[in-house]
Amino acid sequence: MAHILLAEDEPVLRMLISDTLEDEGHQLDIACDGEEALQKIKLHEYDLIVLDYMMPKLTGYEVLVHMKRLSDKRNGKVMILSAKSQHTEQEKMRAAGADAFIPKPFSPMELVRVVEDMLA
Fold first, then answer.
1. Exposure string (b/e) for 24-63, b if CB count within 10 Å is 16 or more?
2. Reading across the β-sheet that carries 3-7, which strands appear in turn?
3. Ranges for the Response regulatory domain (predicted)?
4. What is the pLDDT along the chain (120 residues), one digit of tens a residue?
5. Which of 10, 13, 36, 84 is spaced 20 to 30 Å from 30 by Cα?
6. Domain of residue 61, residue span
7. Residue 11 maps to which CATH number?
């Protein structure tokens, strides 16, 4: 069982992802925007952080940039979810520290497969 932070501003998608990952036995913390996600990252350590690219207050990219500045905490891998699936966007996210990029829309099965690969 992994401790995962899910930061997604869309309520229906947030519920789908959290239900899917909890059904797989993972413990989830939820953030509804980038600012809330960053606050949780400062307080807790996570095995995996799942960030929506486009969120209010701070984008997933901005959260990644702030995470690089936090030297007192070591968190696990970072996955970005985004409708912006252009190669340049993916490269920008990887350069900022993302370990995986899943374009929206995606299937719950695809999400589970990528999460399990990242946690292996």
1. bebebbbbbbbbbbbebbeeeebbbbbbbbebeebbbbbb
2. 27-31, 3-7, 48-52, 77-82, 100-103
3. 3-119
4. 999 999 999 999 999 999 999 999 999 999 999 999 999 999 999 999 999 999 999 999 999 989 888 765 567 899 999 887 778 888 888 888 899 999 999 999 999 999 999 999
5. 84
6. 3-119
7. 3.40.50.2300
Inter-residue contact 37 to 9 (CB < 8 Å): no
Q: What is the rounded CA–CA span in Å between residue 43 and residue 38? A: 9
Beta carbons of 16 and 45 less than 8 angstroms apart:
no
Give the helix/strand (H/E) hosting 83: none
Q: Report d(CA 40, CA 54) in Å as an integer.
A: 18
